[in-house]
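Example record used in the benchmark description.
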Amino acid sequence: MAFSADELRVLRRALAIALHPMPLSDEDVQDCLRLAGSVDEAVGEAGRLRAFLLADLARYRAALPGSVTGYLELLQDALAAGYDPRPDDLAALRALRGKPLAAALLERCQILAERSVRARLAGRSAATSAPGPRSRLLALPGGRAADREPDRPKAPAAPAPVPGRSPAPGSRPAPKPSEVFPPRRPSPPPAEEERAAG
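Model output (structure tokens):
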């Protein structure tokens, strides 16, 4: 996960505040909430990417032996992302053992599968998957929250648009596909005068 310069500045400030508690300005609170939202969005996107990768891997595995190269590349990517090889993967790699890359991946997958089985027998999870969604951030006792009555947090107000600047990327809804790619309309037939007479 990569952070922009602004996100790193906010993260550094939030960590400093966590280590040395002090009153926060409203702007600092909003920055921290935006950063938490960005991190939540990145975690969700990582989960969607992982699901897509695993579905793609299953499609390539089902299309074997014609999709050997793509399957081996996807399996390497999935293993790098913490994928726990399944019996179907081991069976497919055994069938492809004649290729050097498949043989190396088979050896690696057998080691990972053995670790996974041993861990399951020991009663713990073998591979750590992406963490689940975080709970909402709540204010700690003391600070600004102590002055107010306990109520639902208000939605952050959108900042006033600055003339000359384009709106923030998330401030308007995403366009529909029909707006981006309008339907093709057949061109009208040429007029009688334009037709060539033979």
